[in-house]
Amino acid sequence: MSKIQIKNVSKKFQHKEILKNINLTIEEGELISLLGPSGCGKTTTLKIIAGLMDFDEGDILFDGVSVLKKNSNKRGAVIVFQDYLLFPHMTVEENIGFGLKMAKRNKRDIKEVVNKMIELVELTGHGRKYPRELSGGQQQRVAIARALAVEPKVLLLDEPFSNLDIRLRESMRQFVLNIQRRLKITTILVTHDKEEALLCSHKVAVMLNGQIKDYDTPKNIYERPKSIDVCKFFGGRNYIEGRVKDYFFESALGEMKVQLDNKEKATCVIRPEIIKIRKEDSKGMVGHIKSMKYGGDKTYYEVEVENILLKVIDICNDELYIGDRVNIIIDENKILVY
Ligand SMILES: Nc1ncnc2c1ncn2[C@@H]1O[C@H](COP(=O)(O)OP(=O)(O)OP(=O)(O)O)[C@@H](O)[C@H]1O
């Protein structure tokens, strides 16, 4: 249950800069996600926090105190990796008790903690089984129990759900979240799954190319990211070129009010879900539907307006067909201009 501060951390592998001046603060009891594409440096960051890897510059503090001189087993941070890394020749009980045995805790204590953990992760009756006798989700719960048994101050989860099928992933995610909220353990979740990061976290850090590009609440990071790179990482958005003049963004789509100073070249980012389409009734911007895909609770449209193909996500409108002329309504309060 520590506050974690990562200060100006940089790391090179064979002269290649992998982490570039990483700064992050995670408040006590918070769960934050480190979100980014494959190879951007997420696992490296976790290993550095856990003390499993050296780095070139910077500092890591737990509760305001540098942990650089502490070995990994003294830091109180544990990592759960995506492939669980359970010991195959040990039973569930032995796996969960392993860290406590290493810490030379007495047998009675170990048994008590192991039983508590087995109950916590809902594996009562499975204690004597070996990992191969368990399902993927059960193995994962053993890995979580093993990590929590040593009462870490910091829990580091490296893509813990990525090996599970979608249904199991959702229930395991909720399961881990409940435990995290109950124990209030400071947690960093590494993921490349955007929805997972948004759903689970108090805050999300978007990591691209070894740099933290943005760090904010899920809503702010999704709706108001600081840079166009982060918008592009979330994907699926509309990018309109234009300029800002006298507090209006001017483009082929016309004028939209913005709170920005003049800029000769600017890009407006419009999320598909802030655009609504209606059967044409002569008011407002007009386009025509080029494509539509039914997706159950939403429909994906492509609408051509002034030679621009706009992606639109709206509820299904049974009166609309491909080729129809439609009015486009953009929520100007939700556009972003960079
Ligand atoms: N021991 C190592 N020696 C050399 N290069 C390494 C080493 N470990 C990682 N790298 C490189 O550092 C970069 C970051 O790796 P890292 O595992 O941190 O990425 P990641 O964001 O966790 O990716 P993924 O989501 O695929 O696990 C990659 O380019 C990787 O090839």
UniProtKB/TrEMBL annotation:
Keywords, sorted A to Z: ATP-binding, Nucleotide-binding, Transport
Molecular function GO labels: ABC-type quaternary ammonium compound transporting activity; ATP binding; ATP hydrolysis activity
Record has GTP-binding as a keyword: no
InterPro entries named in the record: AAA+_ATPase, ABC_SmlMolc_Importer, ABC_transporter-like_ATP-bd, ABC_transporter-like_CS, Mo/tungstate-bd_C_term_dom, NA-bd_OB-fold, P-loop_NTPase, Transp-assoc_OB_typ2
ABC transporter domain ranges (all copies): 4-234
E.C. designation(s): 7.6.2.9
GO cellular component: ATP-binding cassette (ABC) transporter complex
Glycosyltransferase recorded as keyword: no
PROSITE patterns linked to this entry: ABC_TRANSPORTER_1 (PS00211), ABC_TRANSPORTER_2 (PS50893)
Name of the molecule in the record: ABC-type quaternary amine transporter
Species, as recorded: Anaeromicrobium sediminis
